[in-house]
Design brief:
Order of helices and strands: HHEEEEEEEEHEEH
Number of helices: 4
Strand content: 35-45%
Strand order of the largest sheet: 1-2-3-4-5-6-7-8
Helix content: 10-25%
Length: 190
């Protein structure tokens, strides 16, 4: 069944209002990566639209062992002419030189009309994220998103809930995790 689903093109959101999509999103659950710290918590993404109206600055943060790890990159529509919410996310890999950009897919599979929660996947179905504007998502809505992912051919048994504290930590008053390498690897499935 999953094999058949994999052949079927995933349905993605059409006409995403990028402006409304900007701001902070908390990771409620995701497919964990072996590169991610097992104790990663308070993981979140902040999106900011650049003046060109087409490029998005991406800041991903997570806390592990009391330290904040973060990685920055950019996102842009895979096909500017299409109204489908298929984005490419590009990260630069520090602290290595030369700087190597790593590019991954970011498909918005579902978003509610108020832009309060979203389901993000990518074509290989190896990565899945459930995002919310608040650190906690209503269980019923969470289950609906999981069902939708399942219908799109994802193995939802791999979903792992991300611990979120309320109120969330703010980034400036904690020691930084300078390694941060796991972010690229986990996000892009490398």
């Amino acid at each position: 069944f999953v094999q058949e689903m994999a052949k079927k093109e995933m349905e993605v959101v059409k006409g995403l209002d990028v402006q409304r999509y900007m701001g902070r999103w908390y990771e409620i659950a995701s497919f964990p990566s072996r590169f991610q710290p097992k104790d990663g918590a308070n993981t979140r993404a902040t999106y900011t639209l650049r003046e060109d109206g087409a490029t998005v600055n991406v800041l991903n943060e997570t806390w592990s062992g009391g330290k904040r790890g973060f990685i920055e990159g950019t996102a842009y529509k895979a096909d500017p002419a299409s109204d489908e919410a298929k984005l490419k996310v590009k990260f630069y890999v520090p602290p290595f030189l030369p700087v190597i950009p790593v590019v991954g897919d970011y498909w918005v599979l579902l978003i509610d009309e108020n832009y309060q929660y979203a389901l993000i996947g990518q074509p290989s179905r190896k990565y899945l994220w459930i995002l919310c504007r608040q650190p906690h998502l209503d269980e019923e809505i969470y289950n609906q998103l999981v069902e939708r992912a399942k219908a799109e051919g994802y193995d939802v048994s791999k979903l792992h809930k991300t611990p979120q504290t309320d109120p969330p930590p703010e980034g400036d008053d904690v020691p930084k995790d300078t390694k941060g390498i796991w972010w690229f690897k986990s996000l892009l499935g490398k």
